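#lab-general

N.A. 3:47 PM
ok so I finally got the sequence cleaned up, no stray characters, all 227 residues accounted for. can someone with queue access submit it? mine expired

B.Y. 3:52 PM
send it over

N.A. 3:53 PM
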Amino acid sequence: MRAVAARQGSHWFSEGWALFQQRPAMWIALGLIDLLITVVLYELPYASDLTAVFTVLWTGGMMYAADRCRATGALGFAEVVRGIRVHFQPLFAAAVFGLLIAIVCDLTGDRASSALRLIAFGGAGNKSSLIALVAGAIYLTAALIGTMALWLAPALIVLNGATPAEALRASFAATWRNGPAALVYGLIAAGLMLACVLTLGVAVLVVAPLVYLSTFAASLDMFPPER
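B.Y. 4:20 PM
back already:
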C-alpha cells in the first residue's frame, strides 16, 4: 500500500475521465445498466438491501472492464460479466459483508434521524432519546466502516487477487492512511452527485461510470498490481 498526497484525490477523477473518453458511449451504456438494475432492486419489496450485493459484484465487473479497456481498448458488457464470473466467489463474500452493513444501517436509520433531530433541537434526557443517540452512533459507525472497507475491496479482489478478508482490511487501511486524499475524493464525488440532482438525473449517466473509473485509478495508485 502506498501513501499518496491529498491532491491525488482529484487526480483519480482526472485519470478516470481520460479512460472514460476512450469509449464514452459504452461507459454511459454500462452506467445506464447499473442504474436500471439498482432502481429495480430498490423498488422490489424486501429486496432493497440486495442493492448492496449487486453494487459490490458490479464494481468488480467494472474494475475488470476498466483494466481491459486500459490495456487493449476493448470494452463491452461481456467484459463486466466476465469480471464478475471469474471472481464471483470472493466478490460475493465481500458483498455479504456489504449486505450486513446495509441491514445494520436499515435497522438503525430511523433512530439515527431521531438522534439528529435531538441534537439539532436540544432534546435529551429520557430513555428514548438515549436509545436514539446510541442507534445514531451505530448507524454512523457502520456506514463509515462499510464505506471505507468496501471502497477498494472489489478492485483489490479483481486486480490484485486479494482474498475478501484481505481486500476489506486493505481498503479500510488505505482509506484511513490516505485520509486527506480520500476526503478530497469524497468532496468531489459529493459535488458530482449534486450535479446529478441539479440536472434532474441526467448527469448520472456520466457520473456513475466516472465514479467506478476513478475508483479504479485510486486502487492502481495506492495498490499497484504486480504484473
